[in-house]
Design brief:
Elements lengths: L3 E4 L5 H4 L2 E9 L4 H11 L11 E6 L2 E10 L12 H10 L3 E7 L6 H7 L24 H14 L5 E6 L4 E7 L28 H6 L40 H16 L5 E4 L5 E4 L19 H6 L15 E6 L3 H9 L4 E6 L24 E6 L2 H9 L5
Parallel strand pairs: 10-11, 11-12
Antiparallel strand pairs: 1-12, 2-4, 2-5, 3-4, 6-7, 6-10, 8-9
């Protein structure tokens, strides 16, 4: 398996709602080739070339083959829907027709293809021209994969996140889950993924073997995992620098906070510090707007020497994380996904889907909600098993 990048569409409704009714029948495996040849002549499926004529399913340990006879005409009785030539084939081989549903359109992504195959197997031919996929260029792939490697290697326990400026490939901020105190003494990196009987993606195998339920360390998967230490009779968790741990300090939230702190240091304002009514110190500045759009700090034609010598305090402070990319080891939950939206990220990359609370493809598709005032592109990075095994062995193999 190689490193791969797959776009996670925001809405699958368009392709999955386009369904066609067909008439099918169960057949003996030895008759498959003969029936395919005869039905291709008697009733070719010209508009359904992406649909496979034969479907194999295993039920109760027994393999079963089904073949599409023809398109449905809408009649309630299957025998009345068959053309004359198809009816002859049914009578000759004593077939028992039944109704089935297939997808009308070919899949545009691997995810759509997996959903279509739940109805009836279809063919999927991914686009070789990556420019067709919206949101990235082919020459960006090495940088994207390298950023995901950095995030994965940062993830000793729970989730890990890095924020990257795609224009300079500079890492803006890093973070890991800070919802509770992590115990890294027995931590092992998760290995490979597995699927259930329906082909649904499960958590990595070693991840499940560590604990019988969902992993307690990934905040986006188990947001109540921080409670475990309170119920185990241990000492109160230490707190440093104004809540070093907190139930809402998921990795994405901490990374955003770190990016904001970086902006405050690099783009100091002229604000003054005053105590509020509660005695807390706050910054006040009547001359600066509350919000600023992200703009270039210097003229594009300015030389590198001039840029290095320029005073950062005179440049315009970026507006939140507009235009930045964020890399997450685990797919974010709804809270984190909304935080990414509010901070105007351009692209979101994650390695492992969140089958419990995933908001970007795992369970929900928040990035496909048209009513939201900002949208970002979402991609899943498929990580080679050999790379993960190398991490567990202490060697970083690509």
């Amino acid at each position: 398996m190689e490193w791969e990048l797959t776009e996670v569409p925001g809405n699958l409704a368009s392709s999955l709602q386009a369904i066609v009714d067909v008439v099918a029948a169960n057949i003996e495996p030895k008759l498959a080739s003969t029936l395919i040849r005869q039905l291709s002549q008697a009733c070719p499926l010209e508009n359904l070339r992406h649909v496979k004529r034969v479907r194999r399913r295993t039920e109760c340990g027994k393999s079963e083959l089904s073949i599409i006879l023809c398109l449905s005409t809408g009649s309630q009785t299957c025998s009345k829907q068959l053309p004359v030539d198809v009816q002859k084939i049914v009578d000759t081989y004593q077939l028992s027709p039944f109704s089935a549903k297939v997808s009308m359109c070919s899949a545009t992504s691997k995810e759509e293809w997996e959903e279509q195959c739940k109805l009836w197997p279809t063919s999927y031919h991914p686009a070789h021209d990556l420019s067709i996929i919206h949101g990235f260029r082919e020459d960006e792939l090495p940088s994207i994969f390298n950023c995901m490697k950095i995030a994965i290697e940062l993830s000793k326990v729970g989730n890990a996140v890095i924020i990257v400026d795609p224009l300079s490939t500079q890492i803006i901020a890093k973070a890991t889950d800070k919802t509770h105190q992590h115990d890294t003494s027995e931590n092992k990196f998760f290995m490979k993924e597995s699927t259930d009987n329906n082909g649904n993606l499960l958590l990595p195998i070693s991840f499940l073997s560590k604990c019988k339920s969902l992993n307690m360390e990934v905040s986006c998967i188990n947001p109540w995992g921080w409670m475990k230490q309170r119920t185990m009779g241990k000492k109160p968790l230490p707190s440093e620098n104004f809540f070093a741990w907190h139930p809402l300090r998921h990795a994405a939230m901490v990374a955003i906070e770190n990016a904001a702190e970086r902006d405050r240091l690099m783009f100091p304002s002229t604000s003054i510090t005053k105590p509020d009514s509660n005695g807390n110190l706050k910054n006040y500045n009547d001359n600066e707007p509350a919000k600023r759009l992200k703009t270039d700090t210097k003229d594009k034609e300015q030389s590198a020497d001039e840029s290095c010598c320029s005073d950062l305090s005179e440049t315009t402070r970026p507006y939140l994380c507009t235009g930045f990319d964020i890399y997450l080891v685990w797919e974010p939950c709804a809270m984190c996904a909304m935080a990414l939206l509010h901070h105007r990220f351009k692209r979101v990359f994650y390695a492992f889907p969140n089958p419990v609370n995933g908001a970007l493809g795992g369970v929900y598709r928040l990035h496909g909600e048209k009513s939201l005032n900002h949208h970002y592109n979402v991609f899943r990075v498929s990580v080679p098993e050999a790379y993960l095994n190398g991490l567990n062995d202490g060697s970083k193999e690509c």
